[in-house]
Every structure is written in structure tokens, then in C-alpha cells.
Amino acid sequence: MLDLFSGLPLPVGLSLVLALALVLVFEFINGFHDTANAVATVIYTKAMPPHLAVLFSGICNFLGVLLGGVGVAYAIVHLLPVELLLNLDSGRSLVMVFSMLVAAIAWNLGTWYFGIPASSSHALIGAILGVGLANALLTGLPVDVGINWGKAIDIGLSLLLSPLAGFIVAALLLLGFKRLFANSKMHKTPEERRAIDNKKHPPFWNRLVLVLSAMSVSFVHGSNDGQKGIGLIMLVLIGIVPAKFVLDPASTPYQIQRTYDAAAHLNDLYLRNADVLGDYLALDRAPGANPTQSLHCDPKDTLATIQAVRRSLDGVRAYDDLPPEARGRMRRSLLCLDDTARKVAGLGTLPAHEQADLRRLRADLSVTTEYAPLWVIVAVALALGIGTMVGWRRVVLTVGEKIGRQGMTYAQGMAAQITAVGAIGVANLFSLPVSTTQVLSSGVAGTMVANQSGLHSRTVRNILLAWLLTFPASMLLSAGLFSAAVWLLGV
Asked: Which of 85, 118, 120, 424 has the CB geometry, 3.0–4.6 Å to 111, for a possible disulfide?
């Protein structure tokens, strides 16, 4: 890790330190902001003492980041237009990263201070959209290409539907508990349990489910939210020290060969479908000069880009065999091929089996560009895990007592947590970022409605207001910071 700084001028090295620190601060805040939701029910129901709940939640968050992969990380990265990703080693890209981080951190700290379970995911994604739009306006790009709108819509739908699903599924699950276990002690609140049974803790099996589901929420939170920090760090590293990180330096000969073969198969797929793709990809045009120096992806240069990739990778067994400039060109070429393949898939002209092959080829093309070194994953995991152990009290009180007019029963806690685990786990399978805050809070609200406990209108109004304002507030803040910095620094 220390070789990051070898050969870097002092200002660049300081920029790198500051950028990495900001990402880790974001994940630390995410830990005590979002992860408090994971332990809220288990603490409130007295299933675990607070210090143990927070400690084990931090450990599970750490393991979630460590074992969660990088699918969600690059789903976040690809919200940015490919034109920005092609030119990450510029001063503007660094301004972009700083702007989105400062905006997300500022919003997270503000909502945490007031104990509102707002979404760190919303804040970060809103900040990314803000800099993407600002960059488009400043560079004269059409707004419809300033952001990867296809990816933004997918993520927006996941953020919208996951809390609705959490509300409905948790309510149905609680109704199922009430029907199957009508006379169970799981339907008591901690206060009723103490007053009636003179017991401090939930019944054994209820306590076990509460503890296991809380730790599972922490694990899936780490494997989803933690990846956002991984994606941000990779943006920083590729932007500031591109020679070391534009391509995975640990790529094996097999992975490089997969990329080489994917380019060849992609060429064959396009030619097989020349009748529907010929005009869009200019397949009847002889490949021209190497187009990889361009900062824009033109689908009509696709065949030339494929040939350039195959020429550059022919006989290469390690990326260190390529000079730094060639690695940068290779990354740009692979990003352009992937971007064009995504656009081709969106045309809807390919048969279903060719669409499936195109998805597989895209995965092979990105195997050495969508990665994260182990030290990045460990650093984010530590920041998220340690953050979990700090500042959890404010949000726990809101989730446990202020959403419903009555205290939460053990059954409600179990229903909300089991629902959150399922919803976030499914999102992980499809590499979609979701909000632990939204899913769990809406699950608690759903159980309150199903239990006819009523809702605290003021708390619910504050939560909904925070959810509604997070996107526009973080977008405006990051866009303003980005525009001001570009104007002041002249980048």
C-alpha cells in the first residue's frame, strides 16, 4: 500500500491522502448513521446489551464488506457517464470526487445530529447525480448523456421499491406470527414482559431470532453499503495514481486471456447481427485509426477498438508488461466496448440468446477493470465496522420508540429484521444498492400498522421529509461545490 506514494509530487500525494480520508470518513459516518438501524430492534427489545450488540454488529459489517464482492461498488461508479470515467486522471475528476464526498458527508452528519434515519445511499447517489449533471452543463454535453440514466433508473427503482416491499412484507409477516402464534409471548413489548412476567429479556427462541436477524442485517448492510466506499476509493486511485490502478495489477494470465477472447467473440456477435446493427456500429466501414485516444465513445469505432484491444493484449501475460500509457488506453478501450455493448442491448434488436451472450461478454470484458485490492476492502470494512460502534443511540431511540405510538413488540422486531435481511440480500444478488435505513424503518412502520399500534405522525413526517429532501439537497450541494471548484481552479 505504501508504494502508492512513490514518485508522486507532494501536492498530488496530499490530494490522495485527503481523498482517501474523506471516503473513509464517509464510511465511518455510514457506520454510526445507517448501521444503528441494524441494532435498533435488538437493543430496544433487550435481546442484547447495547455494547455487545454494537460490537457484534461492527464485526458482521466488517465481514459483510470483506466477503461481499464489488458488484454494488461498480453499480455506483457507473452512475457517472462513461466520458467522465474515460478521463478520470484529470483535475476535474478529482474535483468531482471531493464534491460528491463533501456533499454526502454534510447531509449524513446533519440528519444524524437530529436523530433522523435518513439514507446514506440516497445522499451518495444524489451527490453523484449532482456532479454528473453539473459536469454536463459546464461542458456543453446534453443532459441525457451527463448521467448513465439506465443505471440511475435501475438504482432509483430499487431505492423506491425496497422500502415499499419492506413495509408490506414486514406487515404480512407480523400478521402471520399473530395467526400462527396467537398466544405467544413474542407479542409483548419489553415493558409488558417486565411488568407481567418480571423478565428483562425476550423468551429464548424470540431472543435467538432477534439476535441472529440483527447480525444478518449488519452483514448484508456491510455487503451492500460498504461497497459504495470501495467504489469511491477506486475512483480516487484511478484518478490520482492511474498507472497503478487503471487495470487490476494482480490479473492472472487466464483473466487477461478472458478479456482477449471476449473482444474476439464480441466482434463475431456484432458481425452475426449485421442486418440489425450494421448502421449503428458502421460495420460496413473499414476500421480506421486506433480510436482509443478519444475521450468520447463512438459506437461506429467499435470494430477498430476491438482490433486495438486484441493487438495490445496479444501475448500479454501480465499488465505490468504494458507501459503505463498503454494500460490507460486499454482501460478506455474496455470501458468504451462495455458502454457500446450496453447501448446495443438497449436497442432491443437482438434475439434473446444473443442478448444473453452479450451480458456474459460484458462480464468478461470488465473482469480486470472492475476490481478492488484487498487493502481497499479491509480499510472500508474497518471504517464501517468502527463507525458502527460510535453514535448509535440517537437513531436507536427513533426506530424503537418514535415510529409507533406504542413500544415495539418482539414479534415486530423479528418481522422487520427478517424482512430487511431478505430485501437487502436480494438486492445484493442483482448488484443494486439499497438503503438499510429505508428498508428497516419502513418494515417497523409496516408492523406498527399491522399491529394497530398507530404511528407517530411527527416522526414519520420527519423521516419521509428527510427521504424526499435527501436526493435534491445532496444533488444541489454537490453540483454547487463542483461548479464552484471548477470555476475557482480552472480545471
From this structure: 118
